[in-house]
Amino acid sequence: MSLNRREMLAAGAATALGGLPRARAQGGQVIRLGVLTDMSGPYRDTTGPGSVVLTQQAVQDFGSRGFQVEVLQADHQNKPDVGANIARQWFDQGIDAVVDLPTSSVALAVNQIAREKNKVHLNSGAATSDLTGAQCSPNTVHWTYDTYMLAKSTGAAIVKTGGDSWFFITADYAFGHALERDTSNFVRSAGGRVLGNVRYPFPATTDFSAFLLQAQASRAKVLGFANASTDTVNCIKGAREFGLQRSMKFAALLMGIVDVKSLGLEAGQGLNLTEAFYWDLNDRTRALTERVRAKNEGRPPAMVPAGCYGAVLHYLKAVADMGVPAAKASGVEAVNRMKAMPADDDAFGASTIRPDGRCIHPAYLFEVKAPGESRNPWDLYKLAATTPGEEAFRPLAEGGCPLVRS
Amino acid sequence: MADTTSITALAIPDHAKESDGVWGFTRAQLVALGVLVAFLVVSPFVLYPVFLMKLLCFALFACAFNLLIGYVGLLSFGHAAYFGMGGYLAGHAAKAWGLTPEVSIIIGGATAGLLGVVAGWIAIRRQGIYFAMITLALAQMVYFFCVQAPFTGGEDGIQAIPRGSFLGLFPLDQDMAMYWMVAGIFLLGFLLIHRIIHSPYGQVLKSIRENEPRATSLGYRTDDYKLMAFILSATLAGVAGATKSIVFGIATLTDVHWSMSGEVVLMTLVGGLGTVFGPVVGAAVIVTMQNYLAEMGAWVTVIQGVIFVACVLAFRRGLIGELGALLKVKL
Amino acid sequence: MDDIFGIPAPLLFGQLLLGLINGAFYAMLSLGLAVIFGLLNIVNMAHGAQFMMGAFCAWMLLAWAGIGYWWALILSPIIIGFTGIVLEKLFISKLYKLDHLYGLLLTFGLALIIEGVFRNEFGSSGLPYRIPPELSGAWDLGFMFMPIYRGWVVVAALILCLATWLIIEKTRLGAYLRAATENAALVQAFGVNVPRMVTLTYGFGVALAAIGGVLAAPIYSVNPQMGSNLIIVVFAVVVIGGMGSILGSILTGFALGIVEGLTKVFWPEASATVIFVIMAIVLLARPAGLFGRA
């Protein structure tokens, strides 16, 4: 066993039941992080245990700089009231920052509480761009992605490669509408056309063939899936079965490496999708992957856990810079320090944080490899286009974040 | 097997021969009520008030559900629809229309009651397992509506609902102030249900549960009675959901999902179907469990499933029912 | 091109055919529920979970033992049906003398346990399962592109449903079964081992769900929640058809699949609710269901 002491500490704290950090003699010299994520629901595989592992890795890579870091974890079960309750109790018991928060409803609820208690909210898992828009908070950093970025990277980049007429299959709820609306805008402003859309009831639909036939009849060049996880997988499986790949290119507007793995390369080949992180992107991402792979059930990190890594590492650097007591005293000050310092980590490279809490880094459009091109079980993507950070995210002035005006 | 003669009914205590004590409470129930009130007064100084408010909301929800199963013998598997809808309307009223919390909660309860009129009118045409499946299907329809309707905010839910001021006078931003209001609503709802059961109307409900054809032959329009019970139960569930959304400042899809319907069944089953205090205790057990098992991840659903199975196989009277049997009193 | 209500006729035929495929799954699942209900008087809330287990079993056979689709189609129902028999022996058989609602609550608890365990073991994002090579590809029907596998699903479902109906209505075994449904004590008195028949019936109903799962595996994502989304719709189908009738549940399943398919063309947003609306109307007009006895 080659576990060092800090790893054992972190692992011990993570598995401690009850969530009550023990009071310590040196009180002020411990930073406590709580990973609040989906351990049991539909996002477990893309966030969940992976986010905990990558948070611990960030603590380890940060090293010891005169203070200890404890990592706790809890499952919000995708219920906003459960998440809010845990966050409230954590904050009252001395947790300094909550990490990850997938599921938009939970993230927005916890966002309020972090602000009320003046703690730090390091979000990686939520998709809603409201976190840095109408509901932005001086206590929040939204690190990894949002619906605007996905739409921009996928929509604009595909039009540039010739996919200039689109049809959308959209989940009929706010998230699907936002993805479709944003992507349509980018397609049009890049000179493309939207030929039609169909909105299907969410989450009640398992068979998409009826909608696929309507898409086929539209004769569009690109078929955009404005939905997520198993719905997207079912859509793509069906589309391939009905032979749509012969006349159309598929674009999944929110899809991650875990979904592609579940779809399989046979059905997924040629699919376009956007991520902010891929393990095989460059030497630094590969180095990070080597460090965590064994702890992560042998898998490379996915995008959202990688975002936890970047956010936590940068937060700890800011804490070291301003001193532990000051960081513990005010979440706003800690986040301000994060915004003032340039960030740099193995997962995202150099990045910055805007006044509205948005972390700025490039977005990558990937194409899923054919089975013959893949050299190992996780060799799934090839890079198709890169959107620089300044273009990938919603401009500061358009978000309607009250912090920006002041 | 269709051998109906030997079938044992639901393990619901028999209320037929109760002596009328104060407000229809027996002496043992009065003692239990005293314990409950004392708990309501003391607990916020010892335990976390937000946690207690959540517990009380679910306790009222479970009591409302128990009104149907315990006293009419109808198992609704779709009560989340009324709970969640009450929450959405109260949240919308407080946030978009700027109404005071008590008015918002009344609006939430009234909406749930109206929904109960429609759903009840359809569902009471069948009994037993059919009733359960029909209520489940109707609740699923409500869920789909909430996902698509613009005012619910889809999967984001309604966020940042203001707590406002009670009657426009007393601000509820402090957890303790909010707590007293929630405790008041809970106690009112709890006593109201008890009053209903012990009214002449409640006696007819019980006779329907025991023997519907006989009640019909005595000249009671049993469908009207059942519908009325359904509406009352839906309204109170709506009040519980409305209160919860004001407390937490959020109203989301979780509260209309079928798993929430399952949870309230579980709470009532654990506490004891048809007991007065069982739903309260059951809600306390399940809410506490969810809170402290948050670190257990996916095992939470498995544990809930195990409790379901254990209750059905070995523990049909529930905690309070078993306690009552032990002490030979009705609780 | 001819238009029907503003929709090109080929597209409409295509959608009708697709509706039939969905109907095949509804029919298979509601048939299983009806068979179990007929003899056990239990609403099997775990039916969706057992459908999911069938699909996972096919995946496990392939991934862990290299056993392909065709053997899975036979083995998976046997294995999952056997787990059903174990469940019946251990738990469900204890409830026959109690109110039927307890059966519903128990199987709901079992469904929670099964889904939770699978989610812990396999995660929630789903596993890949390929269409068998013999059935991949598609026929060009002129008016649409028909994937061969989807056609196979309809044919397989029809065969299964008809066979089940024949067994129950035309064989001696089926006669015992129907008799036991009417009066178990009397049939027992004639020397038929009714408890064993009940156990096997439950296993058979579960096996039907598992076959549905195997048929679904190549076209839908294989994930732990794949059954629970479907099962509530199937409950509505069962209420519409009326619980007691075998043929009724088959016909209603296929018919509602087609209705749902057509809704997807004319008003896609309503396609999830149409079955529930029909359920409400049927209940108002015929509380016992279309094929049920009052």
TrEMBL record, chain A:
Question: What protein name does the entry list?
Answer: ABC transporter substrate-binding protein
Family listed: Belongs to the leucine-binding protein family.
Q: Which GO terms describe its biological process?
A: amino acid transport
Give the source's domain of life in one word: Bacteria
Q: Does the keyword Signal apply?
A: yes
- The Leucine-binding protein domain covers 31-370
CDD domains assigned: PBP1_SBP-like
Q: By its UniProt entry, which InterPro entries does this protein fall under?
A: BCAA_transport, Leu-bd, Peripla_BP_I, TAT_signal
Could you tell me the keywords of this UniProt record?
Amino-acid transport, Signal, Transport
- Species of origin reads Dankookia rubra
- One of this protein's Pfam families, by short name? Peripla_BP_6
From TrEMBL, chain B:
Coiled-coil positions: none
Subcellular localization, as worded in the UniProt entry: Cell membrane
Key word tRNA processing present: no
Keyword Transmembrane helix in annotation: yes
An annotated GO cellular component = plasma membrane
Q: Name one Pfam family in it.
A: BPD_transp_2
Membrane topology of this protein: Multi-pass membrane protein
Please list every transmembrane segment annotated in the UniProt record, as residue ranges. 28-48, 55-83, 103-122, 129-151, 177-197, 227-252, 264-289, 296-315
**Which coarse location class describes where this protein primarily resides?**
membrane
**What InterPro entries has UniProt attached to this entry?**
ABC_transp_permease (IPR001851), LivM-like (IPR043428)
Show which residues constitute the signal peptide.
Answer: none
Entry GO MF terms: branched-chain amino acid transmembrane transporter activity
Q: Which domain of life is it from?
A: Bacteria
Its keywords, alphabetically, are: Cell membrane, Membrane, Transmembrane, Transmembrane helix
The protein here is known as: Branched-chain amino acid ABC transporter permease
TrEMBL record, chain C:
**Topology relative to the membrane, per the entry?**
Multi-pass membrane protein
Transmembrane segments in this chain: where?
Answer: 12-35, 42-62, 68-87, 99-118, 149-168, 200-220, 232-259, 265-285
| One biological process term in Gene Ontology | amino acid transport
Q: Per its UniProt record, what Pfam families does this chain match?
A: BPD_transp_2
Recorded GO terms, molecular function?
A: transmembrane transporter activity
Major localization listed first in the record, in broad terms: membrane
Where is this gene product found? Answer: Cell membrane
What keywords are assigned to this protein?
Amino-acid transport, Cell membrane, Membrane, Transmembrane, Transmembrane helix, Transport
What is one cellular component GO term in this UniProt entry?
plasma membrane
Q: InterPro entries in the record, alphabetically?
A: ABC_transp_permease (IPR001851), BCAA_transport_permease (IPR052157)
Family of this protein: Belongs to the binding-protein-dependent transport system permease family. LivHM subfamily.
Q: What is this protein called?
A: Branched-chain amino acid ABC transporter permease
Q: Which organism is it from?
A: Dankookia rubra
